[in-house]
Amino acid sequence: MDNLSNTEIIQQVYRDFAAGNMQSVLSYFDSNIVWVRPGEPDIPFAGTFKGFEEMQKMFAVIQGTIRLKSFAPKKFCSNDNTVVVTGNDSVEVIATGKFYNSDWVQAFTLRDKKIIHVQVYMDTLAIAKAFQL
């Protein structure tokens, strides 16, 4: 990990996520991570998550509420300590059986090869509708 660029670190995080290797994914995050996802309270995995434990809880909520049908990062752009990724996903909400497709942007800030902040931008209306009974 020491020799990887910030972009390569984020690309590896996505590869590990796709492979289901959450232990490796989590190893790239700083213990004081702040992860911001819009859509609260309509989306169960939305909110501001501060610290490693809260981030792990967010991932657990994601795993318990949706089934990813596809998750595709498309473009990686970087500048200094920031890597911005565009992509899209197709998801089934477990509780309702409804599907949503969403383009998204995830902006990662890194310090000393660790992710310290993530800001997610996504179609919160489509996602919230999929959670409605």
Structure description:
There is one protein chain. The chain is an alpha+beta fold. It has one domain: Roll (Nuclear Transport Factor 2, Chain: A). A hairpin with a 2-residue loop joins β5 and β6. The protein is globular. The mean pLDDT is 95.
Assembly form of the protein: single chain
How many DSSP H or I helices?
4
Order of strands in the sheet with most strands: 2-1-6-5-4-3
Q: From the 3D coordinates, which CATH architecture would you assign? A: Roll
Rg over alpha carbons: 14 Å
Q: Keywords for this structure?
A:
single chain, alpha+beta, Nuclear Transport Factor 2, Chain: A
Question: What's the short version?
Answer:
With 133 residues, the protein is of the alpha+beta class. The chain has helices at residues 6-18, 22-27, 52-65, 124-131, and strands spanning 29-37, 47-50, 66-79, 82-93, 99-111, 114-122. It is built from 4 helices and 6 strands.
Helix/strand layout:
Elements: H1 6-18, H2 22-27, E1 29-37, E2 47-50, H3 52-65, E3 66-79, E4 82-93, E5 99-111, E6 114-122, H4 124-131
Parallel strand pairs: 1-6
Antiparallel strand pairs: 1-2, 3-4, 4-5, 5-6
